[in-house]
Amino acid sequence: MIYLDNNATTRPSTEARDAMLSAMDELWHNPSSIYRAGQAAKRAVELGRASIARLINGQPKEIVFCGCGTCSIHTAMAGVIATHKHITKPNIISTHIEHPAVRAMAQQVHDRFDIETRWLKTNPGGRIDPSSLADQIDENTILVSAQWANNETGVIHPIAELGKICRDKGVTFHVDGVQWVGKMPTNVRSGDLESIGLAHDEDEGQYIDMLSFSAHKFHGPKGIGALWIRRGTPFAPSSPGAQELGRRGGTENVPGILGMAAAAEGAIAFLEDGSKMQEMREHRDRFERRVLELVPEAVVNAPPDPDQRVWNTSNIGFPGLESELLLLMLSERGVCASAGSACSSGSLEPSPVLLAMGVEPRVAHGSLRFSICRDTDPGCLEEAAQTVAACVHQLSGNLPV
Ligand code: PLP
Predict the structure, then answer these.
(1) Mutational test site, ligand 1, from 99, 184, 351, max ligand atoms within 8 Å of CB
(2) Could you tell me which of 137, 152, 209, 126 has the C-alpha nearest to residue 175?
(3) Which of 1, 6, 172, 395 has its CA 20 to 30 A from that of 160?
């Protein structure tokens, strides 16, 4: 089986698996228990928190463990919204290309609390256009939420520009970093300088107030995520309780946290050597060129500037085909890919992300997402390209040239 689906390529690393197994065997006590075994679990959780903070150059105390990326996003958004009860007509600002986790939350706060969402535009390359943000913010704006990298296309958004505007206007800036953290260097710059392990030059992260991320996108287990909250950011917990410094109640998922921490260490090692990212980007680009060679009518849905795309993601449109059928056929032939986000699989609508990017509906309908990971074997990519071409030719009734 060749896994080119972003939920499967990043299978838990051996280190993450071992950390989880040892947590189950040896650290299964409750970290809130006062006796020695409970305190050992607590210590392990705190060491794990430090590794995860190091991955983004943040402070361990600013990390809140959450159930997953979606839970982190909801915790962030609900947590900010709850601190603004005094505003009579509040609004939040986001984009139509967000993961359903953000869009669903925006819808819910509208339905329940009559909070308006204002939407930022995207340009034809699929990037958020920051030019209208300053004008959209008014005295009733309580939150701006934007993604760092898009889950369907890998497009990287102008987080520093958006963040600077929010900082100038005094509005909290939440970033969905699920597709970014662990794959790209991240520097929120709140970490204690002495504890910072990675020498990141990038400054985009310094304007972020809250950052959501998820372990299973960087070879950790599924079902564990984190929310980083910059010290001083207004936040009221939607799930109160004593754990996580009062920011999210409930007994900690010790195996998940330790698996995530081991995965963070693996991601740090990968990110320390920038040439590895470049190497993987070249494999991804070669895969795309190969698909285009074999299927000349295919279209790569990507921004014009190659630096504005994360190295692992490829989105390719096969005009006139139905992505779901193509995915089923590929799966029968041993290639697992995806279309849209996992949360919208089963939907017959073309991806709103691609439509917002200006992709024609007949291309969007037949677009697939292929994701590689830091361990992807380049040999598989040639095999996958040939399988994709064979399926496309069969479905479109064409014989391969
Ligand atoms: N945000 C983005 C950009 C994602 O890609 C995903 C998942 O793929 C999520 C949020 C949700 O994360 P999780 O699956 O951990 O809930």
Answers:
(1) 99
(2) 209
(3) 6
Q: Which residue has the tokens 């943040």?
A: 58
Q: Examine domains 2-9+274-397 and 56-251 and report if their fold is the same.
A: no
Q: Are the beta carbons of 174 and 210 closer than 8 angstroms?
A: yes
* Residue 104 host element (H or E): helix 100-113
Q: Which residues are catalytic?
A: 343
In ligand 1, the atom with minimum distance to the C-alpha of 176 is 1
How close is the Cα of 196 to the center of ligand 1, in Å? 26
- The reported pTM is 0.95
- CA-CA distance, 185 to 206, in Å (whole number)? 13
The verdict on domain 2-9+274-397 having CATH code 3.30.70.260 is: no
**Measured between alpha carbons, how far is 355 from 361 in angstroms, rounded to an integer?**
7
Q: 73 C-alpha vs ligand 1 centroid, how far in Å?
A: 9
Architecture, CATH, for domain 56-251: 3-Layer(aba) Sandwich (3.40)
Strand order of the β-sheet with 172-176 is 63-66, 225-229, 210-214, 172-176, 141-147, 91-95, 116-120
Domain boundaries, the chain: 2-9+274-397, 56-251
Could you read off the pLDDT of 274-308 as tens digits, one per residue? 899 999 999 999 999 999 999 999 999 999 999 99
| CB-ligand 1 contact for 70 (6 Å cutoff) | yes
**Does 225 contact ligand 1 (Cβ within 6 A)?**
yes
Query: What is the separation of C-alpha 148 from the centre of its chain, rounded to a whole number of angstroms?
Result: 8
Contacts of 398 (CB under 8 A, 6+ apart): none
Query: Tokens at residue 133, please?
Result: 């943000």
State phi, psi for 46 to the nearest 5 degrees: -70, -35
Q: What is the pLDDT of residues 106-115, one digit of tens each?
A: 999 999 999 9
How many A from CA of 62 to the centre of ligand 1? Answer: 20
CB of 152 closer than 6 angstroms to any ligand 1 atom: no
Q: If you write DSSP's letter for every residue of 118-165 in order, what string do you get?
A: EEE-B-TTS-B-GGGHHHH--TTEEEEEEESB-TTT-BBP-HHHHHHH
